[in-house]
């Protein structure tokens, strides 16, 4: 590379035809191609610098900004000697490529979980994402997604490094013009920043978003490191950790207690005008039917630590009584001896089981949650088809649980944690509610016309409209399955805790949705509901807008307190 001069440089051979370049037409084409490649490199760098990290903000106007980082980088490159300049340009481009990959990861996480990607703890979720794609769309789609992700992570940084190197050669060739342009743009940037000029909200024309993004993620990692000590103290501070076994759950002795999580059953399902009329009709009809069978119910809301996905975080939080909103906290819980709701039931004499139809491998959470036995995809005896992501229909899951754990009266009471997954995205294929006696081993679901519904077919509108229609129908099916189960198999000794794990993705709820999920307790024994009279929960299966809202991590302590010994009462005995 030649010294800074407005004359020739190493870029000349690429951007102007040589004397032996051939006919004039051929040289002209080479010149046009060279400038086209340079323009494409500039566009790529500009997009990488100014692109927002959320898909909802990805509009053409969002790119109409002056990135401070570009001005600073050009200024530095102009004063460096040739060899260091090439090194700095390559590193700057490669770093910009990594930043672009980070923005894509943020887009995905905002779209799925309504939060940015966490550099410290979220890597494990990519394996879960590949499994979701495989289960929902097939192995070929999963392989394609993995290949695309690998290409993105490897190719984008290299491509941006080459782009910055090419632009650097152009800048050096026209260094006088470049210096003047940088000075003028820097003055303009300061003026625009002082005036706060914006073309679109949250996107000032005087842009420094790349630096802010790096800072935010660095702060996120630092906060994660500090949170390890904070969370360790929270785990150790357990008001019920040393409670004697005979003091647990005395008001529920002899009851079968089911804690059923309905996938993606969020507050929007009962309040959004597009869902509430139909979902509300299912709940209201179920309430009438259950009342006729002697049952009563109380409902409220819990604020989940998860959004759009991460069901295990909600299970962790509800059962352990501590707030678990990321993988780091999840792993810390697994390594702890924290008392969970299932462990309390087991100590008090219940047989405890987990029913997890989507689990296909060893599940260490089972031991933490106090399960004596785990039923998963491998031992529920299902021989039917899968339904998009959901491997087993909810009605079959409940039927298999009933056959295995509640077949007769002369037995120990059971406490079950059940995950109902038919309402898991992508909501393209869902089961129909069938006669309970017809379920058998699930082969009945192979009759597509009788047992399968494709709720998105025939729905007019874009992909979001079809997804919302599928979500609504899936929630209706899951709730109908639970209501029908209680109606068919419920008795005086059944207590059902029914709740959502989290709201669906922002694709369904839109931006700004709460993280609240409905929760309901159903029982035929009025004494059970009298124990929670002070909670202020509303009657019925559907909580209204004024129903109380608690953080999900407060439920364990409230539940153990409500159903523990009250003054003047004696502990009962498990049957």
UniProtKB/TrEMBL annotation:
Transmembrane segments: 32-50, 62-80, 87-105, 141-162, 182-200
InterPro entries assigned to the protein according to its UniProt record, in alphabetical order: Alkaline_phosphatase_core_sf
Keyword Transmembrane helix attached: yes
Sequence segments annotated as region (Disordered): 1-26
SUPFAM superfamilies recorded: Alkaline phosphatase-like
Start-end of Basic and acidic residues biased regions: 1-11
Alphabetic keyword roster: Membrane, Transmembrane, Transmembrane helix
Keyword Lipid biosynthesis attributed: no
Domain of life: Bacteria
Record-given protein name: Phosphoglycerol transferase MdoB
The organism's taxonomic lineage, starting at the top: Bacteria, Bacillati, Actinomycetota, Actinomycetes, Micromonosporales
């Amino acid at each position: 590379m030649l010294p800074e001069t407005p004359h020739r440089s190493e870029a000349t051979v690429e951007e102007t035809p040589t004397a032996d370049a051939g006919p004039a037409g051929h040289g002209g084409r080479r010149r046009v191609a060279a400038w086209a490649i340079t323009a494409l490199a500039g566009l790529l760098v500009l997009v990488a610098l100014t692109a927002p990290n959320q898909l909802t903000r990805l509009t053409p106007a969002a790119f109409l900004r002056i990135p401070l980082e570009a001005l600073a980088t050009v200024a530095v490159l102009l004063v460096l000697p040739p060899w260091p300049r090439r090194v700095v340009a390559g590193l700057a481009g490669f770093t910009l490529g990594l930043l672009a990959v980070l923005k894509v990861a943020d887009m995905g996480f905002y779209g799925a979980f309504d939060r940015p990607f966490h550099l410290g703890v979220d890597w494990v979720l990519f394996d879960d994402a590949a499994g979701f794609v495989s289960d929902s769309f097939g192995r070929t789609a999963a392989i394609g997604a993995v290949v695309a992700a690998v290409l993105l992570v490897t190719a984008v940084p290299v491509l941006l490094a080459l782009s910055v190197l090419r632009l650097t050669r152009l800048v050096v060739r026209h260094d006088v013009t470049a210096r003047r342009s940088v000075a003028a743009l820097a003055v303009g940037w300061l003026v625009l920043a002082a005036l706060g000029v914006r073309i679109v909200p949250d996107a000032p024309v005087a842009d420094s978003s790349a630096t802010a993004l790096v800072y935010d993620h660095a702060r996120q990692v630092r906060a994660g490191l500090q949170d390890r000590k904070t969370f360790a103290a929270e785990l150790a501070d357990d008001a019920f950790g040393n409670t004697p076994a005979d003091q647990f759950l005395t008001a529920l002795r002899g009851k079968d207690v089911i804690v059923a999580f309905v996938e993606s059953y969020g507050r929007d399902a009962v309040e959004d005008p597009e869902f509430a009329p139909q979902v509300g009709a299912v709940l209201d009809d179920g309430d009438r039917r259950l009342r006729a069978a002697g049952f009563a119910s109380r409902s409220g809301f819990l604020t989940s630590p998860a959004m759009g996905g991460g069901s295990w975080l909600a299970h962790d939080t509800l059962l352990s009584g501590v707030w678990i909103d990321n993988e780091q906290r999840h792993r810390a819980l697994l390594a702890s001896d924290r008392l969970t709701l299932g462990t309390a039931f087991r100590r008090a004499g219940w047989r405890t089981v987990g029913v997890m139809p989507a689990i296909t491998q060893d599940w260490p959470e089972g031991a933490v949650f106090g399960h004596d036995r785990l039923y998963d995809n491998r031992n529920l005896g299902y021989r039917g088809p899968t339904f998009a992501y959901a491997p087993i229909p909810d009605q079959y899951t409940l039927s298999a649980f009933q056959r295995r754990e509640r077949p007769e009266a002369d037995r120990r009471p059971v406490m079950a944690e059940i995950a109902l997954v038919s309402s898991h995205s992508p909501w393209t294929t869902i089961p129909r509610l069938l006669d309970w006696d017809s379920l058998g081993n699930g082969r009945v679901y192979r009759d597509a016309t009788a047992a399968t519904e494709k709720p998105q077919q025939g729905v007019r509108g874009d992909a979001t409209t079809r997804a919302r229609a599928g979500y609504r129908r899936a929630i209706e099916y899951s709730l109908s399955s639970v209501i029908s189960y209680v109606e068919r198999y419920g008795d005086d000794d059944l207590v059902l805790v029914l709740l959502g794990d989290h709201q669906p993705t922002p694709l369904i709820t839109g931006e700004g949705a709460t993280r609240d999920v409905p929760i309901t307790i159903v029982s035929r024994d009025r004494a059970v509901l009298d124990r929670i009279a002070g909670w202020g929960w509303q009657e019925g299966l559907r909580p209204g807008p004024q129903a109380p809202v608690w953080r999900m991590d407060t439920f364990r302590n409230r539940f153990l307190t409500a159903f523990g010994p009250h003054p003047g009462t004696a502990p009962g005995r498990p049957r």
